[in-house]
Amino acid sequence: MNTLRKQILVALAAVGFAGAAFAQTAPAAAPEGRHGHAVTAEQRAAHQAKRAAHRAEFQAKRAERQAARAAKLRTDLKLTAQQEPAFAAFLAAGKPAARPQGQGLGKATGERARFAALPAPQRMERMVERQKQRTARMEARLAALNNFYAVLTPEQKKVFDSQPMHGGFGKGRGHGGGHGGPGHHGARSAALQS
């Protein structure tokens, strides 16, 4: 097992070094679009505006879906007034973390280039730091889930446990509810679960 890990690490390091060498030797060219055509500043601005509008629409639809799921869960569980604060804390802990300006779907190309230009150990350090932040958010969600679960009656726990997993609660279909199939890997995951 250790030999396999070492081989994987060596391969990843080689790929990183090759990418860094390629980035340093690549000639500076005029900005190009997806199909090799030159892109003007106006076209770039229009594209960024279109992406921003699409992102805003996506976030609005996601917020609607989350609100509908929360309302259904509240109804299914028949929550009491005493359980509402724990439920609200649970829902708040499940909200996605706010991203700093310029990050996310429209991450600046300059940021990617700066990241690619870093030495391999620094890139890995940044990736580890991001993973630590994700883990901390998941641990906070788990704490909120445990607090909420503790205030539920046994009947409510049965209902809650039978719910599809959306954003970290209930019985799920794999990784956070999946995308269209039973689990992250579709039929393969379903076969493994049965």
Model description:
The chain is mostly helical and 194 residues long. It has 7 helices and no strands. The protein has helices at 2-25, 41-77, 84-93, 109-117, 120-150, 154-161, 187-193. Mean pLDDT is 76; it is low at 170-194.
Give a topology summary.
Layout: H1 2-25, H2 41-77, H3 84-93, H4 109-117, H5 120-150, H6 154-161, H7 187-193
Biggest sheet, open or closed, and with what strands and sense? none
Report the C-alpha radius of gyration, rounded. Answer: 22 Å
Strand runs, count: 0
Along the chain, the helix and strand elements come as: HHHHHHH
Q: What's the tally of helices?
A: 7
What's the end-to-end separation, in Å? 28 Å
Helix content: 55-70%
Structural class: mainly alpha
* Average pLDDT rating: 76
| Share in β-strands | under 5%
The low-pLDDT segments are 170-194
Give keywords.
194 residues; mainly alpha; 7 helices; flat
TL;DR of this structure?
The chain is mostly helical and 194 residues long. 65% of the residues lie in helices and 0% in strands.
